[in-house]
Amino acid sequence: MKFSVIYQPTSLFSLKDSNSTNSGAKSLLLPSPYAIKMAIFNQAITSNGKESFEEKKSEEFAIIKNAKIEYHVSGSFCVNNCFVTIQSLRDGSYRGKPSFREYVYLSDDIEIIFEVKDEQAKHYLQKYLHRINYFGKRGGFFQFVGYKEYPSEPNVNIFDVSNFIPGILQEYDDISPKSKFINVDNYTSAGAKREKKVLVIPVQNKNSSKSYTHYKVV
Q1: Strand ordering across the sheet containing 2-9
Q2: Interstrand relation of 24-25 and 93-106 (parallel, antiparallel or unpaired)
Q3: Rounded distance, CA 148 to CA 7, Å?
């Protein structure tokens, strides 16, 4: 079954590609499935602790991990190119280092579409989705607008070489089906297990300069 959540961006959004270095990082245009699921984990743990996720066969962990996420987008995306100074530890002391970052202005709300196995999973996710107020970097604020029982048709698609769709390609992360809770827990030494997907964002370049690029949804 499917349902969707509407969020309104209230500040510039930035979420670097997981392949980026700390010195040069382009931003994704949308919150990745991995970032969305980590935001749900954050709200669930803040509200109820993490004990239920640590069980060997945790139903709650499976609900979040196995949720399928799609998107419906509209309007414009304006990507601002910036050089910022970050603190880098070298020779035992912190030094400022210039680094490239992108910050994205989204003109319209985004609709995040969830596909889950049953009504129980839907109600569990809806306990926490309305509490989320940022994705990606902590400054990338989003305001919950509401739920939709009948979602829009997704217009962000997985790249298929045999089915041409105009747009730009970006690689997004999701939680691997083989992941356990220790793989998403930042306080363990176990590494993250991610599944990568190349998505086609249905936008075209309308204007650009050395400092920005303006994309519009087609």
Answers
A1: 68-72, 110-115, 2-9, 142-148
A2: parallel
A3: 11
Segment 10-16 shows an average pLDDT of: 93
Q: Structure tokens of 21?
A: 């270095």
Question: What is the three-class DSSP state of 123?
Answer: helix
Kindly give the residue spans of alpha helices, DSSP state H, lying in 89-186.
119-129
How far apart (Å, rounded) are the C-alpha atoms in residues 103 and 13?
6
Please report the pLDDT score of residue 135 as a whole number: 93
For 166-182, write each residue's pLDDT tens digit. Answer: 999 999 999 999 999 99
Q: What is the pTM of this model?
A: 0.93
Amino acid, res. 106: L
Give the model confidence (pLDDT) of 112-125 as tens digits. 999 999 999 999 99
Domains and CATH numbers, the chain: 2-156+204-217 (3.30.70)
Closest CA to 168 of 157, 153, 184: 157
Q: Among candidates 140, 147, 166, which has minimal Cα distance to 32?
A: 140
Tokens read off for 50 = 């993490």
* Tokens standing for residue 207: 């204007």
Which ranges of the chain does DSSP label H, i.e. alpha helix? 33-48, 59-66, 119-129
Please choose, from the candidates 9, 38, 28, 39, the residue with its C-alpha nearest in 3D space to the C-alpha of residue 103: 28
